[in-house]
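Final report, closing paragraph on structural work. Over the funding period we assembled a curated collection of sequence-structure pairs, and we close with a single example.
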Amino acid sequence: MRSVAVAATGPVAVDAALGAVRAGGNAVDAALAAMVVAMTTEPGIVSPMGGAYVTIWPAGGEPEVIDGNVEMPGRGLGKDRFGGGLFEFALTYGGGITVYAGPGSVATPGAWAAMGLAHERHGTGEWSRVLHDAIKAARDGFHVGSAAASYLLLTLDNIFGWDAQTAAALTGPGGKLLKAGDRLRSPDLADTLELIAEKGWREVYTGELGRALAADQAARGGLITAEDLASYEAKVRTPLRLTAGDWDIATNPPPSVGGPMLAVMLGQLVARGGTDWRDVIKVQEHVLTYRTDVHDFSADLEDDGYRMLEEVRLKGLAGLTTSSSTAHVSAVDSDGTACAITASSGYGSGATIPGTGLMLNNCLGEPELNRLGLHALAPGTRLASNMAPSAGRTPDGRVMAIGTPGADRITTALMQVLARHCLMGVDIGEAIGRSRAHVRVVRGEATRVDYEKDPEIAAAIEKLGMPALEHDNHAMYFGGVGAAVRSASGVLSAAGDPRREAATGVA
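Its predicted structure, as stored:
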């Protein structure tokens, strides 16, 4: 019987993954089942109506990335429809941010298409089994986690308060604010997931659910049309490949921003032959400054992504001239198949499709993903993304799936964990737990180093003479890496991040 190791967002998600494998699934079924549970039981943090990337390295095959990122909607609409339906909110989250929610902040969702295509291409179990535990959690109820409770505390009166249906779904009796440990039921979402389990994921795009989404968007001033939904396709892409020590690593390619940035940063540490903190910081500074100056304002992320990789290959870092809420699941099975899924719905639009329990993303309202301007992209354009789910193999048979949530800290967290594990041979759990640093590059502001309390990092920053901000150890700000691995002898294990709620399981 096939076994699996999984790192996910909580015990219910892990149980779903293990159950999917016991029912005949593989690592892909396990990761998908865990992710749908996360999308169900992490309200506000992530929803199934956002975007997702699925990186799969099948046993005996070549790796691929299934790109289900969100798209700019608006096919068939007049110019007068663009620019509306947006509500501005100032949040204290992350030290203070401004985001835009409302029906006009909703991008065409791709997560269902990515997950459905991944299952069709690589799953070995039944599609209905992938959704089984999520349906049960929504129907019977689940305990709200501390991360979701903390986020809802900041957003229930604003982002998640303007739509009465959303507000009612995210509060207790009498509108009581939910606390960690409170039980929450989502019967409408359970019915919706049952429909998707029975009729398939395309129901979200061209079926009853797709028609409901387009009608609601039209009624409330959003941009998603039936044509946008019918035109959406998850894309199978050839991943970026890089070598780190004995490891051959596959990650998200352009037009994603996250994969190329990770590839360049980790590749530069490999070229420098070490993981000195000064190297870690200076590589981050150079690459992230380039990203801020070029990729954040790119009109063609795919072309600019490959151009960056070629410039670094030819000239090193000298070739780089410089002027949201996510969830992740990793799974590896005993056959050697690896699957890593990262999904995001942004900060949430606050809108729920009436009667479905499906809360919508606000990816068009995230300024960091729309530097050219809100609603400025042409319909059908994929938005920028930091997500970088990755998989790796070694010649002696080791296998790994890894990734993290954390916005622009995704790439820097993975850079540091992979460097420790692949270059230094540090156990994956210890590599995840060690202190991290992140170079914060914001256009028009002084560059600074955010770091977890560590004397070696502090000393490196002092020698570099850079501004810095010290955080507590294992601060959630620095991501939540999850990894599943198979050893050369076939032993399965998984590791979660103490910075966020996480759970692991092997069975």
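The CA atoms of residues 95 and 477 lie 10 Å apart. The mean pLDDT is 92. We thank the funder for supporting this effort.
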